[in-house]
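Q: My labmate handed me this sequence with no annotations at all. I'd like to see what the chain might look like in three dimensions before we decide whether it's worth expressing. Could you predict it?
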Amino acid sequence: MGDRWHVEVDRSLCIGSAQCVHRAPAGFRLDTGMQSHPVEPDTDANESVLAAAENCPVEAIVITLLGGGEPVFPPEE
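A: Here is what I predict for the chain of 77 residues:
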């Protein structure tokens, strides 16, 4: 069984660029205010969701391991 992730979008940072929706259309949606949110906050580890986080222009997407809270993205320095 693979890792499970908790995905959050910091709505105070999100600028509605929709890069996350383009990289992971099954993982993210924009609401009527053009703010991103994860379709399923708790999800299986997924390369497209990770790519969305890595390519967010304002780094508004945070991914942690479900249960333990260890960071997946952004990585700890």
